[in-house]
Amino acid sequence: MASSTYHAFPYCVRGYRFTLPVVLLDADGDPTAPSDWDSEISTGGGAFADCTEEVVAPSGAAGEGYLTLTGDETNTALALVRVKDTGATVKTSEYAFVPTVLPTVESGTAQAGASTTITLASGASAISQFYRGMLIGTTGGTGGGGGSGKQSNQLRVITDYNNSTKVATVFPQWETTPSNDTTYDIYLPSGMPHANVGRWLGTDLATPATAGYPAVTIKVGTGTGELDLVSGAVKLASAAVQAIWDALTSAMTAAGSIGKKLADWALGSDSKVLLSANAQTGVTIPTVTTLTNKPMGYQDGAVWIDTVGGTAGTTSYVNGTADKPVNTLADALTIATAVGLRSLHLSPDSSVTLTASVAGWTIRGGTVALNGQTVTGARFENCSLSGTASGAMTCVDCIIGAITGLSGMFVRCQLAGHCTLATGNHTFAFCYPGTSATTAPNYTFSSGTTRLWFRFYSGGLNVFNMAAEHILRYDCITGGLTVDSGCTGGNVIMRGLCSLTDNSGGKVTITRGSGMTISTDADGRAYLADEAIGADQLDSSMDTYQAKVWFIDDDEGSNDRYVVAWFRNSQPITSGITSPTIHVIKAADGTDLVGETAMAEVGSTGLYRYSEGTNRVASGAAYFARATATIDSVTRTWYQPIGRDS
Questions:
Q1: What is the DSSP string of 304-325?
Q2: Positions of the chain with pLDDT lower than 70, given as ranges
Q3: Positions of E strands within 417-505
Q4: Do 627 and 640 form a contact (C-beta atoms < 8 A)?
Q5: Does the N-terminal peptide bond of residue 189 adopt cis geometry, omega within 30 degrees of 0?
Q6: Looking at the DSSP assignment, which residues form a beta bridge with residue 368?
């Protein structure tokens, strides 16, 4: 076998083939194709050795590729991967991960297989869609390694299960199609609950009188699992109700008995007709329609919180659901622990203060006070954050308020407070100021080796307390950087259309991109030197153009939607746009997902849209959207990466 995109999963499962996306960068941090790929792996802390397979670079790639590790190479507690250039012309990339170990639901031997299916053993579940969402991995026979030689083991997601035919549909398709000698294990993914109906609170149930229905005994009393005859109620089966009726009406025939009175009343003997063949004329028994309220459950695999309109409670699968959120963080954490979830979803107007570590958790929405808690590996989406943090986190589409100990990766975030950085490496991509138009966000360096990288930043930024061990990479679309007078050293590397105010008196080393010359006046303030930019380099209008592509995938519907907006000097363009098109390219091999197609304008807004119902984006795959339009008599083109997780 060779490296293949068929094994691209969000995480690695121990003992199975796993495809890892890799990138090699040059000294400036740009992707660069090597003269020859060389991949090595260390398993379990051992020495590095050549990987069984080698990196495959898609057509047209510039330093990007993918590497498939064998099942033997992932059969370890810790894997360290090193990808380098045998010609030593680019930097070595290193990757570290801990293969996941998942609980096994069941094992068996397949009856047959096809490119996207596997027929499970005849004793597999008789319940429709029972395995949907679970993972299936080959362990031996055709398409599997087995034993200690797990090299060929393949892992796939079960997307559909037919309980009649035992056929499980998988994604992505098999690299090696299973056969009737293929052995397999079925696993439960992290965060997916799985009930064992054969046990109740750790105790095996009695053999049922009717297959498929557990035998239980209801006790009278006030304790756990008992029936309180004062306040409780039991919903009896129709056969039990009929038996009670028969006992009353057939055995209790004596005049004046409860059974005799009930029979006389129901059958009309006492002129109080309820049900009988000779019921009164005009009496109609209404038809009752039962409405079922289907609960929404723990949507998105999260416990839901609404601190304004939620209710208290910690009953699993009752409280904390999307349609019955809890009103406190404490209740949410209790439920999450009980049901095995590590994700919280806050309503937009909810506010919580962390009281325990959320390392590795996902939190969406609301206002969150970090309160000095550990956030290592946590992911925040659409949150407003402030307070003191411990550890590196990932924030997407968040408002970053005043935070002490700020560390991690920040994407499309609004910077709205004065932050103190933790020691380490921090990246801000596609971020922008959230303060007033005249005040830029302030970021203060702490002691220790710290690297701060702003990519595609729009707006101003003030930095404080820079020293010799600090590096700031400032890639700006528009705006400016101000270096405080208290900075005593360090390096600032600037690129883009941005201004610089250096109040450090030249103590900070400033490096600008090619094509510009920086001078410093007597007070240490930097300015563009005379003739730094020649007249032949200037356009008469100095206009800059940008485009933004929004990709909206519809999991429940049948269309992918693309919306494009164009900008001139950071302002939306609402007219004068001709021949707008969208073109979607697969990152894996450079082929088309959607060929170049015209887009339709949304009203007179300058926004253009296109819906695709056939060639849709696949889960876990990467693509590039290419937007093209003629603006101000020039055809202009932009690229933007897109994809989806589920």
A1: EE-TTT------TTTTTBTTB-
A2: 1, 146-148, 193-238, 240-241, 245, 248-252, 265-295, 435-438, 513-542, 646
A3: 419-421, 424-429, 432-433, 442-444, 450-458, 461-464, 470-483, 491-502
A4: yes
A5: no
A6: 352, 385
Task: Identify whether the C-beta of residue 416 lies closer than 8 Å to the C-beta of residue 431.
Answer: no
Distance (Å, whole) CA 400 – CA 163: 49
Which stretch of DSSP H or E encloses residue 85?
Answer: strand 79-85
Question: Which tokens is 471 given?
Answer: 């590096």
CB 311 within 8 A of CB 328: no
Burial zone of 230 (CB within 10 Å; 0-12 exposed, 13-18 middle, 19+ buried): exposed
> Is the dihedral angle over the CA atoms 109, 113, 118, 123 positive or is it negative?
negative
3-state SS class at 244: helix
**How far apart (Å, rounded) are the C-alpha atoms in residues 10 and 496?**
34
Instruction: Tell me the Ramachandran region of residue 408: left when phi exceeds 0, alpha when psi lies from -120 to 50, beta otherwise.
Output: left
Token pair recorded at residue 211? 């297959």
Average pLDDT of the chain to the nearest whole number: 84
Per-residue confidence (pLDDT) for residue 28, from 0 to 100? 84
Whole-number pLDDT of residue 348: 92
Q: Are 431 and 414 in contact (CB under 8 A)?
A: yes
- As a whole number of angstroms, the distance between CA 66 and CA 7 comes to 10
Q: Which residues pair with 240 in a beta bridge?
A: none
Closest CA to 612 of 552, 547, 548: 552
Amino acid at 32: T
Contact at 8 Å (CB) between 596 and 583?
A: yes
* Contacts (Cβ under 8 Å, ≥6 apart) of 255: none
SS3 content of the chain, % helix, strand, coil (to 5): 5, 40, 55
Task: Report how far apart, in Å, the C-alpha atoms of 392 and of each of 353, 409, 425 are.
Answer: 18, 8, 9
Query: What DSSP state is assigned to residue 247?
Result: I
The answer, as to whether pTM is greater than 0.70, is no
Q: How far apart are CA 111 and CA 116, in angstroms?
A: 14
Between CA 109 and CA 138 the distance in angstroms is 9
Contact between 19 and 11 (Cβ < 8 Å): no
Q: Residue 547 class from Cβ within 10 Å (0-12 exposed, 13-18 middle, 19+ buried)? A: buried
Cα 571 to the center of its chain, rounded Å: 31
Q: How far, in Å, CA of 29 to CA of 513, rounded?
A: 13
pLDDT in tens, 624-633: 999 999 998 8
> Quick one: pLDDT at residue 211?
54
- Burial pattern 70-94, b for ≥16 Cβ within 10 A else e, equals bbbbbbbeebbbbbbbeeeebbebe
What's at 127, amino acid-wise?
I
pLDDT digits (tens, 9 = 90+) for 531-581: 445 444 445 456 788 999 998 877 777 888 999 999 998 899 999 999 999
The gap between the terminal CA atoms of the chain, to the nearest Å, is 28
Collapsing DSSP to helix, strand or coil, 26 comes out as coil
> What are 379-382's contacts with CB under 8 Å, separation 24+?
none
Q: Are the CB atoms for 384 and 400 separated by under 8 Å?
A: no
